[in-house]
Amino acid sequence: MPPRKKNRQGVRKERVAFRGNRSAPARQKHWTRLARDEGIDELDTETSESVVAKGALSRRRTVIVPDDQTGDDHVRKLLEGTVVVMRGRIAEVDVGDGVWPCTIRRVLRTRQIKERHPVVVGDRVRFSVVHHGEGIADEGVIESVRSRSSELSRRSGRRVHVIAANVDQVLIVSSAAAPEPKPHLIDRYIVAALAGGMEPVICLNKIDLIPTADAGDLLPRYRTLGYLTLATSAVTRNGIDELGKLLANKSTVVAGQSGVGKSSLVNAIEPGLNLRVGEIIEHTSKGRHTTSTARLWPLRSGGYVVDTPGIKSFDVSIVPKPELEMYFEEFVERVAGCKFGDCTHIDETNCAIKAAVDAGDIHPDRYASYVRLYEEPTT
Ligand SMILES: Nc1nc2c(ncn2[C@@H]2O[C@H](COP(=O)(O)OP(=O)(O)OP(=O)(O)O)[C@@H](O)[C@H]2O)c(=O)[nH]1
Ligand SMILES: [Mg+2]
Ligand SMILES: [Zn+2]
Fold first, then answer.
1. Which residues line ligand 1 (CB under 6 A)?
2. pTM for this structure?
3. Whole domain around residue 110: which residue ranges?
4. 315 inside domain
5. Nearest ligand 1 atom to alpha carbon 278
6. What's the CA-to-centroid distance between 174 and ligand 3, angstroms?
7. Residue 313: inside a domain
8. Which ligand is nearest to the CA of 311?
9. pLDDT in tens, 53-104
10. How far does the centroid of ligand 3 lie from the alpha carbon of residue 192, in Å?
11. What are the distances in angstroms from CA 109 to CA 114, 144, 147, 148, 211?
12. Are strands 124-130 and 99-104 parallel, antiparallel or unpaired?
C-alpha cells in the first residue's frame, strides 16, 4: 500500500475511481447521517498520482476514510434496507430511520440486467456508504440484492419490466364506472400475480357511482374462483376499513388502469400520505396517468403498499403458453378430463374446458381471456 497523507486527526483523504458514466445523485437535505462513519466506498481504491479536475465530470473523487477502518483485513460494514423508489439509476433505500440515495455497482448491473432489472421497488439490498466530504450528502453503492420472494412483471417491448418485488399480494383495482371495468385486464393481472408468486385481490372501486343492483357479476365471478374480493369507494369510504385490514401487516402492490382510484384508495387507508390523485378526462372517462413512478409506502398498520402508475394493457406474454392454464383456477381442476394430455383447450376435441364453458360452468369471459392470452404473440 502506498503511503497516504493524513490531513486531520484520525482521518485521511483518498482518491478513488468512480464509474465514468456514473450519474449525479439526487440530493435531499434530510437524509440521515446515521452511518456517516460506518463504512467506506469499496470501489477501486487504488490511489492515484494523476491530477484530475474536480467536479461532476471527474472520474475520481476524494473521499474521507476514517483511519480506524482502513486495515487490509477490514470487513466493510454494509447497511441493509428496502428500495422505495427508483429514480433513473438511483435507488432510494429505506433503512428504517432514513432514506439513502444509492447507485448500483456496475458488476451487479451487468450481471443481472440479462435476467431482469437489477434493482426494483421492494428489493432488499445491502449497500456500502460513500462519503464525499464536507457539505456533500453521503450516498450508498448497492453491493447485493437479496433473492426475491415474488415479482410482479410484464413485458415492455423486448424487455421484462419488473414493477415490484417481495410483495405478498396484488390489489387489482377496477372502477365500477369512469372508467368502466375491464374484466380481461383483471384476468391479465391475476395471471401476472399468480405467475410472480403473489395472491390476487380483486377490488371494485367507485361503487358510489352506481346503484348496488348494477354492480353485476364481476366480484361474484372472482369470489367463486376463491379470490378475495371487495367493493370500495374512496369517496364515501365504503369498504375502506375492510381494505385497511386486508393490507395490514402485508406487502401489497396496487395495480390497475389509470384513473380507477389506486392512489385515492392508498390515501383513504393512510391519509397522511397525500398522494396526488388525478382528474378524469370527461369525454373518455379515463385517467391521466397521474402516478408516474411505482413507489413504496410504509403503513402505520404494519406492512407496506406500492402505488403504481396505471397501465392500459398489461402484457403477460412472458408466461409460457403451456403454463397459462395453471393460472386459471377453474381450469386447473378440469384439465385432467381433457382427452389430450397437452390439450391447449382451443382447437382440440374432447376438451374438458370447452365442455365446461358450454355447460355454463366456466364464465365465457374467462375462457375468452385465456384464448386471447394464449394466442398473443410471445415477443
Ligand atoms: N366517485 C369516485 N371517484 C373516485 C373514487 N376514487 C377515486 N376517484 C376519483 O378518480 C380520479 C382518479 O383517481 P386516482 O386515485 O388518481 O386514480 P389512479 O388509479 O391512481 O390513477 P393513475 O395514477 O393515473 O394510475 C380522481 O379524480 C379521484 O378523485 C371513488 O371511490 N369514487
Ligand atoms: Mg395514481
Ligand atoms: Zn382441453
1. 205-206, 208-209, 233-235, 258-264, 277-280, 287, 289-291, 309-310
2. 0.80
3. 6-145
4. no
5. 16
6. 30
7. no
8. 1
9. 333 333 444 444 444 444 433 456 799 999 999 998 899 999 988 999 999 8
10. 22
11. 9, 10, 15, 16, 51
12. unpaired
